[in-house]
Specification:
The complex is a heterodimer of chains A (about 120) and B (about 110). By secondary structure, chain A is mainly beta. Classes of the chains: A mainly beta (about 120), B mainly beta (about 110).
């Protein structure tokens, strides 16, 4: 158990809908990362937050947004969902962004199915 | 060309075999190299990381980085059925404030008893 929690575990929704995925980082970790994993693209970085502020963006669609709250949990909002958004969404956390490797600990993921 | 290429396998070996997993990359700015293991329906877990070129050993696992060839490897000695998983290579540059990881697509490994 990495100490990173994600809810819900599974989500089934229809095209055009909006969903929110939630992540709680490990105790003491200030950075949160969101990744999308699909069969054809593999594990792709979406966005990073550090202590409430956005630090880096990857190939995140404009229909997707995220935020990190004062208690350091993070939410990933996916809107106007399309069939191609079906994937595993992982949250990872690390201690901080400055220097060193700062191992990223991954949560168990949320499996999103868009029908 | 993708930044990180990894043979997806699948790779099937008998118990006790030496396993070699590899990735190539194109971005010469990559400085940190990692191997993650992902069991089915679980999140990736970090196995090993290496900074720049060289070798690193941890028990049955050895990671090698050859920056001149842009090639990294993970060797598993005396492989066990419990090693059956997908192995993902990951890498990133020196950072600044961006700690984005770029992953290979993963190699599915099965170790048969």
């Amino acid at each position: 158990d990495s100490g990173v929690t994600q809810t819900p575990k599974h989500l089934i929704t229809a095209t055009g809908q909006r969903v929110t995925l939630r992540c709680s980082p490990r105790s003491g970790d200030l950075s949160v990362y969101w990744y999308q994993q699909s069969l054809d693209q593999g594990l792709q970085f979406l966005i990073q937050y550090y202590n409430g502020e956005e630090r880096a963006k990857g190939n995140i669609l404009e229909r997707f947004s995220a935020q990190q709250f004062p208690d350091l949990h993070s939410e990933l909002n996916l809107s106007s969902l399309e069939l191609g958004d079906s994937a595993l969404y992982f949250c990872a956390s690390s201690v901080g962004p400055s220097g060193g490797v700062y191992e990223q600990y991954f949560g168990p993921g949320t499996r999103l199915t868009v029908t | 060309q993708k930044e990180v290429e990894q043979d997806p396998g699948p790779l099937s070996v008998p118990e006790g075999a030496i396993v070699s997993l590899n990735c190539t990359y194109s971005n010469s700015a990559f400085q940190y190299f990692m191997w993650y293991r992902q069991y089915s329906r679980k999140g990736p877990e970090l196995l090993m990381y290496t900074y720049s070129s060289g070798n690193k050993e941890d028990g049955r696992f050895t990671a090698q980085v050859d920056k001149s060839s842009k090639y990294i490897s993970l060797f598993i000695r005396d492989s066990q059925p419990s090693d059956s998983a997908t192995y993902l290579c990951a890498m990133r540059d020196s950072g600044g404030s961006n700690y984005k990881l770029t992953f290979g697509k993963g190699t599915l490994l099965t170790v048969n008893p």
